[in-house]
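Armadillo repeat-containing protein 8, pasting as requested.
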Amino acid sequence: MASLQPHAEYVQQLQSPNPVDVYMALRTIKNAIIGSSTKKSLYFRLHIIPHVSALLAMDDTDVQIRIQATTIVSSLAHKGEDAAKELLEGGVMVSLISQIMPGTDALLMEASERALNALLSYTGTKMSAEEHTYSLVPYLLSIVTKAKDSAQIFEMRTHARIELAVLILGKLCVTESRQFTVANAGAIELLVPLLLRGYPRLQIATLRTISALSYENMEICRALAAVPHDGRALPAILLELAQHQDPEIRLQACVCISNLSRMRASGGAARDIQSIAVPALAKLLRCPDVGVLQVVQALGYLCHEDAEMQIAAKNAGVIADIIHIIAETESRDGADFVDSEHNIQVAKAGFLALGTIVSAGEECRTKAVENQMLAYLVRAMDHRDDGIKAAACLCTQYIVRSVPICRTHVSESGILKPLLRLVRHDTPEVQMTATAALINLLPDFSPLRAEALKENVVDILVELLDSKITMVRRNALWCIRNLLVNIDDGTRRTIIDKVGIGRICAISHPDSEPVIREQAAGVLQNITAENDQGTLAIFDCLGAGQTVDMLTGLLDPQTDTPTQVHGLYLVNNIAVRSQAYCEYIAKHRALLQAIVALVTSPISEVAVGALWCVNSIASHKMPTARGSNSNSGGSGGEDGEPRYLAELEELGVQAILEGMLGDASLCLSVRDRVKSCLDYYAPLAI
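Structure tokens follow.
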């Protein structure tokens, strides 16, 4: 306790009426905490922040005292999010901004800029700077403008000041509105020329700010790509910097490239990005001079939804390297002198990047499995960190998209049981990603389907239908959809009974969320797909009137396209198997009108589904002397005339079909269905 006494006295001295005592105490504290995390923590516990904040808030505080107090703020801000938050709550942001305005002492101005840069290093403080953005942005850009036109532009001190201004600008760009505020103030035209100054620290700061300015902002990405400098477009400049000798410049240039590429604003440089940026990032994975976390994140971002970029990453050896990085984080987990939080972030980023890289291509998935990726995923599902669990589930979802992998390697991996544990996890993010991965393990080709049924997966999925999380309910319904494909009749009956036809029909109502309604309609489609067991269950539950009303609702023009498609194939399944059930469809004017209206849909998938319905309705024939009318088979003698052509003709179906056949713009799948439907009219034409 005695060792704390002198430090406590220094803090107490900050309230002295004598400016000299205050100054000396501040200088002593400053010298103690700079570079010392222990001393920062000590003064943090001694509640120094309110005292420093109060000194900066007073109008008559001496400049030299302000410089010392501001330097302390800058040092304490580096301590972490908690210290920065307390500084912010103490009102230092307002004080710092007032100290950089014109007329301020030069040394105080520079100290304040450094403190602002340190304070804005955290998400919370960046977001809290909203009210100050409009005053800060013009000031920061004026620093760049004045320095650019100054005779001292080549001095190191001048570049350091520009660097600070540029870094702060980038830290302000945390929302789309702030990105536009910075861009509209003229930042793009000022920043791009700085990339060619040849001063590495300034180039790195500029690249970071361009990255923050362009992140997920298509309009700004396009504006950046369109601004020429000395006859060169920004993508070309960035690709050149991606080959720079300084690894940090290479990394930051690649991050900017990934932003432009993701927003499809890289012009004609896609091939160059594959041949330059991807290998550059691959090499940086093995470079000790840059943070591996940002490299992995940049690779994942660059490869997102771009199959060719994913192949380029695989060819550059990225998959094996990221798996190696994950292995290293796993081996260091829990070890002494390891930054556990950083370790977790790297592992999480690794799984997410791999998930992105294997999302589209079979080659990439095969490469990941060859490098024992499944074993790491299984272990990651039991990790203490929920973020890693969720990332592992997401990666699993993409890897098991592969039918060959799902049939072979996945069944031997032991992945099902940990995944089933996670579908009931308390954390929404984990539950959502785990249930999404489970969808791909339950199709008819998956050997894990039988094992999942033994593990009572149906009961688990029924339980999840009561989840408060929309995407968990949606994923559970999708899992049920997959279970109903090519399943034996006994299991189908069990699933129908446990899930409840009435429940599925109820959530297919228009009031349900679109993604829930879509999957509910998909479940009903699959229930009725292979025999009339499901159709019988629906009619027994709802009755004929409510059933056709439900079907009509699914085909409403306001219904979203995926739900309409499921609704059409549900109608088709009911119509094609039994003349008795088809009767309800053919004689229900509103339902038949809804089907016919969708025949000419500009969306080919919808048009094909509607034409299948017309085809199935027209396929039922009148009984002949040689046949008998059957409620289950329905067609009677094979030479009988189509039973429901009159109902179809009342709606002008033949004329519609003939008109479509003459439309050269129709895709092949729609044209084939039109011809098939017109075959039922051939006898009438004779």
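Note for the archive: DSSP finds 44 helices and no strands in the chain.
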